[in-house]
Structure formats: C-alpha cells, structure tokens
Task: structure prediction
Amino acid sequence: MKNHDGLPEGWEWKKVSDLGEVLTGTTPTKAKKEYYDSKDYPFFKPTDLNEGYYVKKSGDGLSKKGIEEARLLPSKSILVTCIGATIGKTGLIRVSGAFNQQINAIIPQKNVLPEFVYFVCISPQFQKSIVDNSSATTLPILNKRKFEMLTMPIPPLIEQQKIVEEIEKQFSRLDEAVAALKRVRASLKRYKASVLKAAVEGKLTEGWRKQQKGKSRENADLPEDWQYKTISDIGEVVTGTTPSKSKKEYYESRDYPFFKPTDLNAGFYVRESADWLSKKGIEKARLLPPKSILVTCIGATIGKTGLTRVTGTSNQQINTIIPKENVLPEFIYFSCIAPQFKKSIIDNASATTLPILNKRKFELLTLFIPSRSEQQKIVEEIESRLSVAEEVEEAIDINLKRAERLRQAILKKAFEGRLCPTSC
Result:
C-alpha cells in the first residue's frame, strides 16, 4: 500500500538537509608546503571516489597542519561530486578525511544509515535529479543550497537495514559475475597476443610448411626461408603533416579522411576519421592509398596501429608504411601489432616524458618476413583465430552492459519500495 506521497507506507520524502549535516569541501592553499608534506589525512577529490562503496584511499593527503585548514569528515560520510563532467559521482568513505570544493558531503544523522543514503545517491532517480537541478552550462554545477533541497525516499531505520542487506547481496552476485567476465576478457587479450607472437615467429604455420616442403626436408619446422627486413625494405615510409588550420577551405568538405591516432581504434578496418580534408586541403597533405599501415610514433599511444581501407592522409604523429607488392598489407599490420614489434617501438623511442620514434629510427625497425604465400596463410590463420576471440569479447561486453543495467534496475526497485517488502 502506498501513502499520499506515492511511497510505501511508513516512507517519507526527505530533503538532503533533513538527513544530516551538508558540507562543501575546501582546498588548503598549495603555497603552504607544510600543509601537504605528510599524508596524515586523506584528501579526497572526485577521482578518488571510483571505489564507490569502499573509499579508503586518496591520491593526495594533508598533514596535521593542513587538516586544520580543511573540513574533516567522519568515517561513513557520503561524498557527491557536484561540478564538472563527473557530476553525481559518489563515494562512501571508510576513514575520516578532508575533501575539496568539487564535492558536497553528507554526514548522516543517527536515524539514517550511511549505506542507505549512498545507495540512494547512486540510484538512477537521484542521479537524474542532480543533473536536472545543476546549472545548464558547459560546466554543470550543483551548489550546496540546491543540493540540500534534493529529496530522497526514506523508510524506517529497520527497513533501511533490510534494503541495504538485499542490495549488498544482489550486488555481490553481480560483482562476482562481472569479475568472471573481466577475467575471461583478460585471458582473451593474452590469447590474442600469443597468436600474434606465434604468427610472426613462424610457429602458427609449422604444419603448413611441412605440407608445402615435405617431411624429407631437414628442419622443416623452422622458418628457414624467412628473412629479417627493415621497414624501409618492405615499403615506403611517409610521415604525416597537418595543413594549416587557418585555411578554412582546407577543411570545409569531407572529401578525404584525415587520420589521427584516435582514429586508429578501429585497428584492422580503419575507414572513418573525426576530421576530414577538402580537395584543396589534400593538396597540402600526403595522400595515402588504401591498405596503408598507420603507426602512431609519438606520445602516450605510441605503437597504436591501423590498416586503412580508403584513400586518405594522416597527421604528423603518424608514420605510414605503404607496402611493396611482394608484401601483404594485412601481414604487415599483424606484425606491427604483435608484442615483439610493439616492444621494439618502445625500446627505440626517445626516453623522455613524451616518447617519440622519428621516421629514420622507424625505418630501421625490423620484421620477420616469409614468402608471400606463407604471409597469406598466416593472415588467414590469424583472422580465423582472432574472429572467434572477438565474438567472445563482443558477448562479454554485452553481458557487462547488461550487468550495469541490472544494477541500476535493482537500485530503482529498492527506492520504489519493491526490492525488499516489509515482510522480507
């Protein structure tokens, strides 16, 4: 039975300010080094709330002097990010600590379970109310006054406890299932790396070579006819360039894709790009034919590789291999994403905060190259094995998304009074 507020009997709508004390964090001045010279107290920021229900550590800490300039929270306070892209991110801290000004904190009264408030805060209903009540700007903000006015459905204390226990039980099952899926995904990643490693060492086609050469040949298992070749031996290497951004006519139409490292996420099938060049723009760039191999050679994503399927161009963060006729582009692509080649990229890159592998060094890297017929067989073997792995990965991703939807459904039911009836 529901009451006149549309809630189960005994439940009430309560403002956040009715549940306990609400505080907005503050950051002690960074100019005072003595505030940060020891980690006596955790100093929580939005990024520290990723642990959600069990927040115990922070990236930064405050000294005993620093905590005097901050707002100390007791254990089991609820922290809610109220500004920026992560608005609504919530954590239940399990230790006392301070927090910065991007966070509003709730210190619950004794008649309200902190765990219950945390679960309400991460429910889809409450998360929507945060977004709906934040300022509609490029940087959404929900100030303390508005945050305090948000409402939550609150049952009697004994029912809060039952709901928390039921959510914990169901979430525990979900967590176990998600952990198992992630373990399988990690195993698939290792499997794919092992397939590529075996492929470029000739182990994947040992049986094929025996069939081709006959068992009478001595050492038929060994890839004796394979050769180490430099990148410059197997194709032309082109470093990309960026036409002047001040010339709008270079970018006014989508005639040619303009590939950047982020566009190489498609890997074996790179067709689309975020930016494009016009016919005038392509005259100021370096045109690349389909089935060129693009390798990122600078920055955090160094080694990221893609095989293009359309004519296009790239920026200066990418070195491109345009293969010679005796080498299959697909074989080069798989060789470039194999762990051995990725390691050689890292080993030969400049040892700075921004790793760089210039064109000259890139051209001198080596690959182990078999005959064209064996290249074709290796590509077929890799595609066969990796396609199965990718199907399994796709199924895992679907089930991980399903688990997250189920988690949201559990929370929704819980705060509509449908998860744990009073009889449970």
Remarks:
- The chain has three domains: 12-154, 156-218+371-424, 227-369.
